[in-house]
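Hey everyone, long-time lurker, first post.

I ran two proteins through the pipeline my lab uses and got sequence/structure pairs for each. Pasting them in order. The first:
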Amino acid sequence: MNHRSVINAESAGAAPSPARKRSLLLRLIRSAQPMTRTELASRLEIDKSTVTENIKPLIAEGLIREETQEGEGRKARVLSFVNDRDYFIGLNLGVRRSQVGLISLNGEIEEEVDFETPSTATFALRMARERIESIYRNNPDKQLRVIGVSVPGMTDASRSELVYAPNLGWDNVQIADKLKVNESVKVIVENDSTAAAMYEARVRIRRTEEGLMSNFILVRSGTGIGVGLVIGGEVFRGSGSGIGIAGEFGHMTIVAGGKPCVCGNRGCWEKYASAASAATLYLGDRPPGRGESVPRFVEIVSKAENGDNRSRRSLEKIGDYLGIGIANVIMGIGVPRVIISGRLVYGWQFIKDPMFEAIRRSIVGKFEGWSVEAGEPVGSAIGGALEVAVEEFLTTL
């Protein structure tokens, strides 16, 4: 499906709603601003008049501004968001550390603070709320639109509750209710891998001319592994009215009777291919010796870069297991393009070759067209949470 069929529904059989048209235009402006109406029409493969029809009311509302920009001996009228009126807050609840940030519609993170994640949900949300309220108090002249929260686990269908986060040991946490600063501000809770996929999609729109309607699988690896799926430029969250379990591939079994996982299963993918699994592979399943600390992933990468064979072998094993899981995910979903994000990206130079070899051994490797590439190592964390907030606003205008 191309851009024209999405906007004008020439091949979809049903006209997209005005909200959908606006959403596509706004997402593109936000990712690549400032843009002329001609550039928008070209990127979306629509008539310039269609752009004008959708943009005029947004200019009248004060959401979009159009101004003259000089460049290369000519003047052009360009569109961009008014960034001094609305803002959004994101909270990334990580297994080890959490971040709270502020963003405006110009796409730049303007403020960010982090803290060590407490072991209990009550204390974690209390600390997060204190930081959110501080940002809220310090911006009295702007309007807070949405608070986005990314969590390392499953959410409910309404995206207000964390149903279960195995690596945190939390379940049934009413996050939205705990973080509301007032009744007019929405709080949206999203799985961190889905949030990271939303962030990665916007980054790719900004950097290149592809991405607005792209299909890809995002594998986010840190303490655990999660999978986000983008189809036609939109994240897929599963269907039905139950819990959001789409993307929980980190807990698929890749080693029968393997290492026990916090989820209660054995042999889960994240026990062998996450950044956190590197320490176990490095130590060889033994506890640290006297005076020996458990190495962090970045420390193992640093040792490998300095020629330490033990560290290199550990990262190569991760690459092998990562490839096994990726081949399974590609076969199960049917989308051949994969992007890796999270801390694992720091060890990409040691991981990628054994990963590619593992994929080539699978049935996926018998076909052409698949690809795996490195994405963002850290930005997808708080960036994903902020993206959740902004996307909610843009899609519900």
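...and the second, right after it:
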Amino acid sequence: MRSSLLFFLVFFTALPAYAQREVWLEALGKPQNYDFEPTVTSVETFETPEFRAELFLQQNSPDTRQKVLLLKPLDLKPGEKRPGFVVPFYDADRMCGYDLATKKRMPPGREYAEFGRQLVRQGFVVACVEPYPYNLLADPDGTAQKQGLRWWGRAAEKLLADQPTWTGMGKLTADTRLAIDFLAAQDCVDAKRLGIAGHSLGGKMSFYAGSLDDRISLIWASDFGMRWEDTNWDAPWYWGPEKIASFQKTGLEHSSLLALRPVTFILIAGEADGEQTRPQLKRAQQLNPRLEIHLFNHATGHQPTKETVEKSLELIKEKFGVN
């Protein structure tokens, strides 16, 4: 494995920038007969003591739409432009910290993983977006979230049956980049100052979309498992076991994805990520010395801690010039 990794890193470094990107785009795959206009429809607006919000449905395939929840700071003035963040996760509720059905505050215990709420309170405009398993299949009785991984398995089966030349990770990345399109088009957003942030699954989505999208200058990810062996990358809704086996055989790893562009990368580690992640981060830096990498390892479990989130937010505010 070590020799194949060394061979790949030498080979990858020798490739021109466009070819390095193509390695990952080819791995993600492309859908067939997938032309559509990503129209956006406003569903509702509401206000909490911490932000103003508007829920949208955005076309994300010829026949499906994804939820995008736009969060605006309470002190945002008419005509003002703020830096923006896309925040993907299982649902927008847990990223904004409020139950979208009742508009009530979520129970305490995971407030530091509420990246959307944390960022809008710091003055950023935020777009929270859901992943494909919750909009690919019809869910008339609202049981998708309760079915857990069974729903993800069903959605992956349908996706790969409909689009055998694509991957689950390709779909997740494409949908996240649609949310970046949505956010960049908002009148209150400075499209030249965009970041992306996510915890766990949202970290995976943020890492891929942020690494591949030239509009993103900062990626904030929490405990998504950067190494193939540290989380369930082989699940069919991500890559599947065959792809992961191929990547491991050839030495393809996430250091080369992160190295595609000179972004600021902030990683909160705790369980799926940790000290074992440092060598990949170091290799990414060797591939692209213009990367700025920060690792905050609390080593206390999967949920980010108050200290690591506060450190991250201070750094993010500094990078985007937010007081």
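Reply from user beta_strand_b:
Welcome! Quick read of the second one: The longest helix spans residues 168-184. Residues 84 and 125 are 5 Å apart (CA to CA).
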